[in-house]
Design brief:
Length: 319
């Protein structure tokens, strides 16, 4: 009886409470949603979410399948023995293995546990969510009139991943990485369902937040402010890079948000697409939890600078 009374509030109770709240404020809510600004905001928000959800579902499903069913020893055996050569090989592996950043962090930790050189595991960690086929396909659909954006994202993302791996070889220290004890799950199918469901809910929440922020930027902020920021090439690139860190959008959905920020240059939007999958708020938290705080406080700022530089150079050359 006590356990029943003191049990935690579940999702059903939360949903029921939200529905009751909506019914109570239905009149004012109808008036608010009837305004032109609210209609425009809703249109932008819904369009971003509807375009991104199929890729998000597909990506987290494949990510969970790879994490659960592919033997981790496979990656260690497939990589070259020399660390300097293992880094680009691991980054290239990330390009062909679909998955989001939510799955790449624990997989990278597992690779280190299995004896893969940390530099190669970190290159995989950065490349997999930024360059996998699902992400590049979503980018092509989000930018139908700019096919060069797919190529630019692949080049800049691969370059940033390899550079960060080589930097770790030169400057990294093994004592910075503190891996927690690895716990084994239940059956494989239960682990698969749990991983896919967790990643879908987790990444979907960030997608909604990102879509809301993008809709707000497009509707509520005066156009002249955004345009003034976008007209300055340097400020525009820095602004969208920082925005990518703050929004923490899943890499399988960020292209649709970037495509909606039409005030900014292609190079600025490329920086958004390159920086976001490599370092954002949720990734920093996951990296700190997987590899330790000493690692995260060093790796995250360096990744931001390298990803920003690679995106800027790539965009400047192409456009």
């Amino acid at each position: 009886m006590d356990a029943e009374v003191n049990r935690r509030t579940g999702s059903v109770e939360v949903l029921a409470g939200l529905l009751a709240l909506v019914l109570l404020v239905r009149g004012p809510l109808d008036d608010l949603l009837g305004t032109p600004i609210a209609r425009t905001w809703t249109t932008v928000f819904v369009s971003i979410v509807l375009q991104a959800v199929p890729f998000l579902v597909f990506g987290v499903t494949l990510s969970a399948a790879i994490a659960v069913f592919v033997p981790r020893e496979f990656f260690a055996k497939a990589l070259p023995k020399h660390p300097a050569l293992a880094v680009p090989a691991a980054a290239a592996t990330g390009m062909v293995l679909p998955g989001c950043e939510c799955g790449s962090v624990p997989v990278a930790g597992a690779l280190v546990r299995k004896g893969v050189t940390p530099a190669a595991a970190l290159a995989f960690l950065l490349a997999a969510p930024a360059l996998n086929p699902v992400v590049l396909t979503a980018t092509a659909i989000a930018f139908p009139d700019q096919p060069s954006m797919v190529f630019a994202r692949a080049v800049a993302g691969l370059a940033a991943s390899v550079v960060m791996g080589w930097l770790w070889l030169c400057l990294g220290r093994t004592e910075w990485i503190k891996l927690p004890e690895h716990s084994h799950g239940d059956t494989r199918w239960r682990a698969f369902a749990g991983a896919a469901g967790h990643d879908l809910v987790h990444a979907g929440g960030f997608l909604v937040i990102g879509a809301m922020a993008a809709a707000t930027l497009n509707v509520l902020i005066p156009g002249r402010w955004l345009q003034a920021l976008a007209d300055n090439p340097v400020l525009g690139i820095l602004a969208l890079s920082l925005l990518a860190v703050l929004l923490s959008i899943c890499s399988e959905a960020d292209a649709f948000v970037a495509a909606s920020l039409t005030q900014f240059s292609l190079t600025a939007r490329l920086a958004f697409l390159v920086v976001g999958p490599m370092i954002d708020l949720k990734l920093f938290a996951m990296q700190a939890g997987t590899f330790g705080k000493q690692f995260a406080v060093r790796f995250a700022p360096a990744t931001f600078v390298v990803a920003l530089a690679c995106a800027t150079v790539t965009g400047t050359v192409l456009w």
